[in-house]
Amino acid sequence: MTRTHRRTTRPRLLLLTLVGSLLATLGACAPPAPQVSSAAAKAQVASPSAEAPYDIRPLLRPDRKYLGVAFNGSPRATAPVTAFTEKAGKRPDLREYYAKWGDPFQADVNRAVWDDGQLPFLVWEPFSHTAAQIADGEQDTYIREFADAVRDYNRPLALSFGHEMNGGWYPWGSKKTGAADFARAWRHIHDLFTDEGAADVIWVWSPNVINPVPDVRLKPYYPGDAYVDWIGVVGYYALSGPTTFDTLFGPTLTEIRRFSRKPFLIAETGVQAGERKPAQIADLFAGVRARADMLGLVWFNLKKEADWRIDSGPLSLAAFKKAAADDSFGIDVRKP
Question: Helices in 204-276 by DSSP H: which ranges?
Fold first, then answer.
């Protein structure tokens, strides 16, 4: 048995040797493998599935207007959307929520919002660090990790950093933060997102209406058109103060048009409960509908400091339902 085994093994060894030599010769003659750039290699590692970046362009200026809403609680919860839809008669297509600086980006939560038919709109609040610290690079590790998670999420995300910066009620606002530092911080964040390949972000610069802070100019806070997609104005119809769309939003829109042509979104609004609420709801929708440069509105559907909810009274709910039924409002964000 031993001899027979040796006689059959030698020819196999010889054959394997010849095949190995032939493969080595062919390998030496083959052209070199193409070199992959470091940027391409980084992209392949970051996105092993090689999924193309989501094309957000159709969402930037859709043919119809957004009907957005903000609720209490986690944006993952769908029950508030269902209840709102039943009351309003139309499903919202944009959902605003708030995240503190230092919180991680929750891809699963935002994907749940997107899968439910709303564009996630994250309002990023820098309570824990100053604009100067952010602009000077002290938070780069956090920003890059956040941007990486947004890139890998690879779905549209509207993002507003430091909303109402012209007001004095937030630490990043006009009383504690200089306009130049705020604009520097915005540009720095945007640049890091670009560097990390997070291309699915709609950047929303969101000042408060200028009525309560008429001496604070907006242009110094503006990072520039190259860093902004939408201008999201925040303003509410309260029991005192401006009573119409033109008096509430008009002065702010006029001032902004002196330095930017970017489209507007009413990024946060509501009408305080009272006798005027039904008429002011109709006025709000009419004002948004009348302007071609107005993308839509986000209703703050909370009872906080005042009752801003659409169903604070039966007449208010009826007015909201009638206004929202207009064909101008309502987008299928996945097929804009």
Answer: 245-256
Radius of gyration from C-alpha coordinates of the chain? 27
Nearest to 272 by CA among 246, 235, 247: 235
DSSP, collapsed to helix, strand or coil, labels residue 257 as coil
Residue pair 262/228 in contact by the 8 Å Cβ criterion: yes
**Burial classification of residue 238, based on how many CB atoms lie within 10 Å of its CB (0-12 exposed, 13-18 middle, 19 or more buried):** middle
Give dist(CA 214, CA 40) in Å, integer: 49
Side-chain-side CA neighbours of residue 292 (13 Å): 1
Q: What is the dihedral of CA 289, 208, 187, 223, to 10 degrees?
A: 70
Query: Which ranges of the chain have pLDDT less than 70?
Result: 1-50
Specify the amino acid at residue 62.
P
Q: What is the pLDDT of residue 42?
A: 39
Q: Which residue has the tokens 């030496």?
A: 28
Residues 175-188: pLDDT tens digits?
Answer: 999 999 999 999 99
pLDDT tens digit string along 241-292? 999 999 999 999 999 999 999 999 999 999 999 999 999 999 999 999 999 9
DSSP E strands, the chain: 66-70, 94-100, 119-125, 157-161, 201-205, 230-234, 264-269, 294-300, 303-304, 306-307
